[in-house]
Amino acid sequence: MKTSPEMMRSHPPRTAVSGNASSLRKRLGRVSDRYRAYLLVPPALLLFLCLWQLVVILGSYPTFILPAPTVVFRKFLLVLSDGTLLHHAWATLREVFMGLGLGLVVATLLGYIFAKSKPLERLLSPYIVASQSIPIVALAPLLVIWFGFGLLSKVIVCALTVFFPVLINTIVGIRSVDENLVDLMRSYGASRLRMFTTLEIPAALPVLLGGLKIGVTLSVIGAVVGEFVAADEGLGFLVNLSRGLFDTPMMFVALFTLVIIALSLYGSVALLENRLLSWRRSE
Fold first, then answer.
1. What sign does the dihedral 157-159-161-163 (CA atoms) show?
2. Is the CB of residue 230 less than 8 Å from the CB of residue 208?
3. pTM score above 0.85
């Protein structure tokens, strides 16, 4: 019995159907593995809160030493309703975004120049490494003296915190580009701008985004360090003020808000990475 092409199209081979089903199962498995960790977050958070409450009850700790989760939550609702938390959170976010932008631009440009010029890197890298050996907490008071008690000193502290890891990741990312591909594009007469946009940036993007993940987290630390030294607003100032007043619930609220900001920034970069590097998953 002969099989016509029309019958073949209407009834695809069993191997093709099984192959499609296997591919679908693999994709569903990857999706379930990706979101399985997120499903564990609420139970883990609930367990953490229960253990926290249990420690407070068993230890009979006063509020100024270790407040209960319910006390911290009531404090959170209070400072959220009267605008205090939003005011200080916005002040910190402004410093974070400005410092992060400044640090990223300077570190990326300098990292690209270093990646293309090894003599210049050997000349300047000892001074950059030496500057990183000074703790930013020790350097922040000097920056406040030089640049004043306003926004500029906090932005510079934040930018310096971000600078070094982004610089190193930029150098590593640009130098990881395959030299054979560079030679191929040169043989076709590609301009430097064309090579930069179509080869160097896409090839170095995974390493650059890894440096950005580190940078956004460190930017929050830099902003808080600057506020610790000299500030009249911001979450770091709120932590400092709460410590002086023995208002531990307020301190917990400020710390948890900093954690939420850092996680949100990191998650935003992760989503950006997921979108920009989707071609790697398809491969």
1. negative
2. no
3. no
